[in-house]
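Data card: per-record layout.
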Amino acid sequence: MAVADIRSDFIITDLIPVLFGIVLSFFIFRFWVPFALRRVQIAFYTDDGIYEVHRITDTFKQSRKLLGEDGAIFGVTLYRMAVTGLMILAGEIAFQPEEYSLHVLIFIMLLLAIPVLISPVSSLIGQFTRTLSSRKADLIDYKRNRRVLIVVVTAMLFALSLGFWVYLTRTLEMSPEEARAWTLVLFLFPSVLVYGRVMGSSWNGLVQQKWKRAKGQASALNPHPPRFFARLLALFILVNIMLMPITALNGFSSYLYDWYLYQFAPEDLFSHSEQALLVYPEIRTMSLSQKGGLIGYLSIELFSQVPDVFVAKFLSQLTVLFLILNVTLIGLAFVYEMVRMQFIGLGTIGGFGGVVIADGRALRAESSHRGLLVSFCFSAFTGYTVLMLVMAIFGRFPGVLPDAQMCSTNLGAIVGGFSPEYRGTSLHAEACGVLDPDVVEQLTFAINAAGQALFIPFWFISLPKWFKMKRANFDLSAIEDRGGPIIIEDKKEMAKLLSRTKPGEDALSLLKTDRLSDLVSVLKRLDRSNASRDRELHARTEMLFAASRGDWQRAEDYAVNLLAQKEGEDLMCRKLLAAAALANRDLLEAKIRLEDLPDDESESDQLRWVASLFALKGKLRKFEVDEMLQLTPGGRRLEDLVSRFPMLMAWPSKKPRIDNAVDRRGLLGDVARLRLSGRSDDALVKIREVQTMMPDMLGARWFVAEALCLIDMGEINQAMRIHYELSKSESEDPYVAGLCEVLRTLGQEAPHLVDRRMDGLIEVTVATDSKKMSRLEWSRIVNNMPTNAVAALKLGRKGEDEALASNAWITMGPAIKKNMWPVVRGAFAVSNAMFICMILAGVLVIYMEGALGIPLVIGAIGLWARAGNKRQVVRHRDMPLCRDYSSRLRTKRAMVKYNELPVGTHLMLSGIIVPIGEIPIDLGYPLWVDPLVGKRDKWLPGLNLGRGSTKKRKQKLEDYLGEESSGIEGRGQVSKSALLSMIDKKNVQKRQKYDGIKNLSSSIIQAKDEGMVFESTENDDRIIGGPRRPSSRGTPRKRNPPPGFVKKSQFGDNDSVFY
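The structure for this 1059-residue chain is written out next.
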């Protein structure tokens, strides 16, 4: 077989193909690659089979930005090297195909070998590492582990390949050519596997999406309707994709026949006719794989009937080349389609077994995840497809194949003794031996057959998802239709809700004002809408609603979803994800999330303040509290609650305020602490005092708290009456549902006590008797509610440390009775006595036996340091510090149990409250947030206990706090409609029709008919200032006009009205 010569001397003209390849590759990467990566899209599941599609690249600039994302440079560099090597090889073949320059050939081999050798390593790591979620700490772990895995996997693959080569040559006594081919097949197997997985699982989606584009329609892969040329290209790709299963079966079966099955046939089953042998005499010595399998054999017989011999040979060679390279050409020529497929997630939506690097929502929200996916696509696919292309060119056109023997001789003269030798061969000889024609032939058919064999099973198991892929609804206009009002057509169904909704209020306003029953009704309406703007509002409200109730897993899912919808640019979602990390006691994630938040923003700084209190070590403790931050409602509540914790003081020493949602939520938590300390009568007095001051501004949970206090005092009938009144107007409120379940567990029966256990409300789940639920199931619930100490206590003894990490105030009842104050011990705890004894024993051994005791001392110090570090690691489950303290409480019989708690504690108890979007969010109160330990008072600027023993510092703290306050500061804001009803009832009664629908905010609801009126006032609660509350039952009391409004009957729109 004629091959190309290799010239060892260097002449200046050798640089021509090099410059040609470099310049051409520059233009390819400057213009073609960004053009091919335009309009890359990401799809993620939202609801009811809807996949919301978002575009991440639309222009050349955005495409280049995607290629330059953090983490993408590794794969892009490998792809650039491979393309540059191919272009230089093309230039070398074009300018002088019969002779190669050794220096240029070495340069080409380096450029192609590096991507080929790294490709299986990248493929193996990408396939067998876990899918990246939105948790940024996972990304840091992934990058750290990836560096180690690259070294380990590379060494493993090279060692395995070397051992396999030795086995083939020494044990099986294969020829060097066959041994090289099969060794490369083994080495490249991870790349072949990932290729088969991706192509097989994405086949359903590719066919359906390319069929849409060939018909002139927009698709999930290409969002705009195509033009004529694009439709032709889509049709060409479609034909290739549809033939992939046939060509794969043909290629694999032919290789299997040549390798194994031929020996069972009595004669050659694929012998040709005399006419075919006359036209193609070279096929006498060709194997079935070289002919293109069964289809190639039939094509040769068919084209041999063509009169023109030249045309017949051209058609048959073209068919054979297509059959051999069909699967490979799809991956190489359309590697950018592979990138689109991975981003859109066709392998998971319409198939099984696909490779998923990162979740779709995380890809949309985090640019670093996108960079890693781009790197994987280019690095994993490039080496395999480039090698297949080069081998196919050399195999079909052997005249341009460099001479392997000359390459080995000339290269040996250059490297000399630097090339390691082993059993008669050397590294440079094996590298040049890949260019041997027999190796090229074996390698081409073996790798091609392996790829086709792996494609078939993944394609077959993905076929059942054909119809699911067809039913999938890809919302391609998710970005464009986020403006405009929400349209609800059923006006009769919405009449009651409209009558209770004031102009200017939206769904978030309902959450801020604690009107949760109305909020649930609005969310149900929004859930039925398919408009992307409605889904955005629904996700934002559900996110804050779940976080305000302590359902952190649900809140985090909605936050990630919404962050993906907002292209990663949403401050509220970022803040909530940081709060979720703090709630889960995941300080590594919290540190990363807090870095994304802006400085000098009150809500962000409050989260940083909380993180500095939660951290036991590290940079999070270096936060400096601003004086203005102390004056915010969240800052006031935080400083007050932390300073009261060492004495377990249930009620603030200073008069609490109630004119802010954060203050009111914290005050409700103080009422729960009064109940925990056995002072339900005092709690009831406080509740009724607040109800008197703010009759129209309180949510249903305050009346739930009133009912729970009455249950503690034995007045269960009054509690039943309160629930009866609440069930009329606040039946959808989750806290009312929780009260209902509490009454049902106490054995009460009534028509208004409806079983809500199947609604999935956490308030009902915690109140329900969980004996039928396994410990594993309840453990998952505890993980979803990391700030709910009551839920943790339902696990029994195994949940006591989780309860202390969630909210340590839960133990205050028995702890006060046993005088067990929450003092967190430092490094010199009693448990450390064992390590001290080990060190002393080691010193004694050193004194008696010399150096034999040194390992004992070093080991004891190491174990002591490790134990101290473990005590400083913050986590929600099985934290050593919490386990140690719960053990101490059990020893003193001061550890509270679930059945010893006041009923419904989970409906009231809260810890540290932070505002997010002005919504109060409970982060719990972990045990280790103690101002008496580690000089924590420097994070509380209003508290300066100085130095000294813990006892002296505690005495200073008691003197600083003093006694509990006896009143409540702050005057609640009354609604304007309520004020009008007090001053001029006659004018208010004249309003029989509501004419304000046209002024409703578009962010909540807008009726299509702006002239809609209410025919009755049955559902119009607005005329009396909002829905009636249970505490206002009976004849309304006559109230005097507020100060400053005597003899004033008209009010402007900008009036600020207070009691």
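Known properties of this structure: Residues 480-505, 971-1059 have pLDDT under 50 and may be disordered. Residues 136-171 form the longest helix (36 residues).

See the next section for split statistics.
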